[in-house]
Amino acid sequence: MSPPGDNKSHRSVTYEAAMTESPTETRAASRPLIGTGLIALAAGFNLAYAGLVWAYEYPAILRRPAAEALALYAQGGAGLTALWHAFALSAFLLIPAACAISLERGHLVRQPGLAVSAAITGALAGAVQAAALWRWVFALPPMTGADADPLQAAFAFDLLNHYAGAGLGEHMGQLLTALFLVQCAALQAGARARVLAVLAALSAALIALGTGESLSLALGLADPGFSLATIAGFAGFSFWLAGAGLRALTGPRVPPAA
């Protein structure tokens, strides 16, 4: 058995070691968590999207009559609602993801203003798109109930679809996402992550171009292909997220302070 004084000394040394751990060491330890989280977010977003394509004919269903969209939603039941919740949650998780990518130590050292601005923009993009998507979870189910009036339900669906869906999610949310990607492209170019920077810039251009679909619908014009730009842009965004995750897992480490 060790003398009481030895235990006290050991506890003191352990406490002092914990208190003197450098911020660099803490950040290095968090890189695997950040990298894994970004890759998981990219995969989860695409799995939820694929599930909605299969179960709800998304996104084509958004341009069909309200009665048809509501009937198909009712057929999907709780499983479809859960898919929408997962999809909205993937948008919401862009908030911490944007902060993790933008506020990387190197970005804060080289371009602190741009790093903080990118974190704020990315967080806003995630919040706006999640709020728009959660209408499918919390507003749509009552419209498909047995007691719902078909005409009132169709009117409410169209109103939500045009404002929350097209206006907030597909327009404001996508513009914020594109701006976030442009800011990250500038940060990553400065960090010599040129492949990621180029991918971010291309994805931003496609996502911004895709906002023309909602504007065309508001103006009563036909979509000349903006929806395809959106799909391609978010595909690029997914690869960029996964690439940022891989960089966090395998990229160069900053050596701990002496």
| Counted beta strands | 0
Intertermini distance = 35 Å
Structural class: mainly alpha
Q: In which range does the helix fraction lie?
A: over 70%
Contiguous helical run count: 12
Mean pLDDT, all residues: 88
Low-confidence stretches: 8-26, 254-258
Q: What's the oligomerization state?
A: single chain
**H and E order:** HHHHHHHHHHHH
Radius of gyration over C-alpha positions, nearest whole angstrom: 23 Å
In total, the number of domains comes to 1
Protein name: DUF4386 family protein
Keywords: Membrane, Transmembrane, Transmembrane helix
Transmembrane segments: 33-56, 82-103, 115-137, 171-189, 196-219, 225-246
Organism: Alkalicaulis satelles
Question: What keyword list fits this structure?
Answer:
disordered C terminus; 12 helices; 258 residues; mainly alpha
Describe this entry's structure for a reader:
- This protein is an all-alpha fold.
- It has one domain.
- 82% of the residues lie in helices and 0% in strands.
- The protein is built from twelve helices and no strands.
- Residues 8-26 and 254-258 have low confidence and may be disordered.
Outline:
By secondary structure, the chain is an all-alpha fold. Helices cover 82% and strands 0% of the residues.
Which SSEs are present, and which pair or pack?
Layout: H1 4-19, H2 23-56, H3 66-92, H4 94-102, H5 105-110, H6 112-133, H7 135-138, H8 140-143, H9 150-190, H10 194-210, H11 212-218, H12 226-250
Helix pairs in contact: 2-3, 2-12, 3-6, 4-6, 6-9, 9-10, 9-11, 10-12
